[in-house]
Amino acid sequence: MRTIMANANAKLGEDVFKKCAVCHTAEKGGANKVGPNLWGIVNAITAHKSDFTYSAAILARAQPNLKWDYETLYRYLYAPRKFVPGTKMAFAGIKKDEERANLIAYLRTLSDSPPKLP
Ligand code: HEC
């Protein structure tokens, strides 16, 4: 994970985020759309927005205290419905490792103090 993230490019990731922007806003205080706003998502607890109605599936997954760290985001975004069976995020996933890493590098910038890289 460390090597993958060290080589990731947030600028390219911003482009990949266009696939997400149909359903998610990225800016601080942005509205929830079909999916929750993603400001501060890296290292946030799952189901991080109290004003968004999550699926039972993701809430169940959240109970064992799953956190959206680099590793879990990397796995979730590969195949959301495999990682969280029953999630209402209707998105097939991003299969290219490099693209996913770039995207996560971009997600990391959505914060007042971006968490340190793994
Ligand atoms: C078709 C709409 C849609 C698309 C496209 C989509 N999402 Fe989502 N996303 C959702 C929904 C709906 C949820 C809530 C899932 C649930 O409650 O099961 C969600 C949840 C999430 C979560 C968990 C948020 C939390 O608070 O725990 C993350 C992280 C996430 N999406 C990232 C992404 C990224 C990154 C992309 C782009 C690759 C993306 N999503 C594309 C609809 C979408």
Automatic annotation (TrEMBL):
Membrane topology, record value: Single-pass type II membrane protein
Protein name: Cytochrome c homolog
Subcellular compartments: Cell membrane
Provenance organism: Midichloria mitochondrii (strain IricVA)
Entry keyword set: Electron transport, Heme, Iron, Membrane, Metal-binding, Signal-anchor, Transmembrane, Transport
Job description of the protein: May be involved in electron transfer from bc1 complex to aa3.
Pfam families per record: Cytochrom_C
GO cellular component, one term: plasma membrane
GO molecular-function term, one example from the UniProt record: metal ion binding
